[in-house]
Structures are given as structure tokens and as C-alpha cells.
Amino acid sequence: KVLVHDVVSWNALIAGYAQNGLGNEALECFTHMQKSGIRPNDVTYICILKACGIVGSLWIGEEIEVEIRNQGLLEKNIVLGTALVDMYAKCGELAKACEVLKELPLQDVISWSTLIMGYAQLGHGKKAFELLDEMRQAKFEPNQVTYLSILKGCSLSTALQQGRLVHGQIMRSGIELDNSIGNALVDMYSKCGAMQKAYEVFEKLPEWSVVSWSSLIAGYSQLGQANVVLNLYSRMITEGIVPNSVTFIV
């Protein structure tokens, strides 16, 4: 019995590897797919761009960009455009990622948030915050993912002033202060040494987790406040929260 593989079956295989962080395997499948005479489509390109970002394969990503532009695919697929932005950001080419986004014929809050996340994850909190303003000027309102990205950037670059401004914007936006946003705020304030503010946010969280406790403990530990750290640790145990490796490292 001869098995015939079409673009759908190849895409499923490539997507499976990419979604599980196996970028090299996804790229190998892509090579085999092309050798078998199957022409990739927009779904294939989205998965391959993700794989390029995983392994940092900039040159393959650049080749894919040429292909999708030649086929005019960016004109009608916003997900593909976002994947291209993400690939360049993951490969450390932030200026290129920014350039691509601003040239995309289709943009949304996800594509903007992807770019902001790229800058934030590499510690460029100030630029990420500037992009937040540009995003608003482009008439896109930030969502929870956007704010989580910005707060991550503020934490990495210890940009307290920007972090405070973001906190204020979150409160005014009406976005719920759930555990993900709350933990990000506690982490940001703790890394910036603003422990009173970190503690205030911590006390308002709807639920305490090992992540929120560890962030708070880490902040006081960095300031050398051993007594506070020990008291918080005891309280954490009393609350029934099991410490993890991060808790002990701090």
C-alpha cells in the first residue's frame, strides 16, 4: 500500500514538532516535504517561522519571508505576519521585527504584543514601554498579554518608573487583577526594590501561589532583610503553600 502525504499531513507533523519546542525536527520535516514535491502553504510557513525562532535560525527565516512576500500572503493573513515578527524577535533581530510589524498591511493587538514581548524578554523595558504608546496611537488597546510583557521588561531592566505607570494603566483599563497580572506586579516591584508596594499588591491578590510568595521573599532577600524573609517563609508554610526550588534559591 502506497501512502500519499499531502500538505495537510505534513503541516500536522511540522506543527507537532514546533509546538513541542523541537525546532530542528520541524525544519527537517520541512526539507523532506519540499523534496517530496509538496508545496507549502500559509500554515506551513507559520509553523516553520515558529521553528526558526526556537532554534535561532535567522537565515531560514529570512528565506521564508522572501517566499511569503513573493506570494503576497502577508496581504491576507494576520497570523502569518505576527509569526514573522515573532521569528525576528526570537532571533534577537528586534529592529527588523519592529520594521516588519510597522510595514504589515494587517495588524492587531496580538502582533503588537508579540513585538513588545520580544523587547521585554531581552530586557529592553524602556523601548517596550515606548512601543506601548505607539500601539495606542495605532488605535490598538493593550490586553493582559501586552501588560504581562511590559511588566516582564520592567522587571528585567528594573525600570520602576515605567512599572508604576503600567500599574496605573492596568487599574484604569478595567483589566482584572488576577493571579497572572498580580504575580507580575509583585515580581516587578520586588525586583525594583519597592517592597512596600510589592507587599501591598501581594495582599490584594485573589489567591496566593508559590510564585507570588517566592517573588515577595526574593525581594526582601535582595535587600538583606533576613527576619522578614524568615517570617514570610513561616507564614507561607502555615498557609499550606509548598515551597519550590525558586523559593529556596532566594
Key attributes of the depicted protein:
15 helices, mainly alpha, single chain, 250 residues, 73% helix
How would you describe this structure to a colleague?
The chain is mainly α and 250 residues long. Helix content is 73%, strand content 0%. The protein has 15 helices and no strands. The longest helix is centred in the N-terminal third of the chain and has 14 residues, at 42-55. The protein is elongated and about 65 Å long. The N and C termini lie far apart (60 Å).
What multimeric state do the chains show? single chain
Instruction: State the end-to-end CA separation.
Output: 60 Å
H/E order of the elements?
A: HHHHHHHHHHHHHHH
Q: Taking all residues together, what is the mean pLDDT?
A: 89
**Strand segment count:** 0
Identify low-pLDDT runs.
Answer: none
Helix-residue proportion: over 70%
Radius of gyration: 22 Å
From the helix content, strand content and strand pairing, which structural class follows? mainly alpha
Number of helical elements: 15
Largest sheet: none
Strand content: under 5%
- What spatial form do the alpha-carbon principal axes imply? elongated
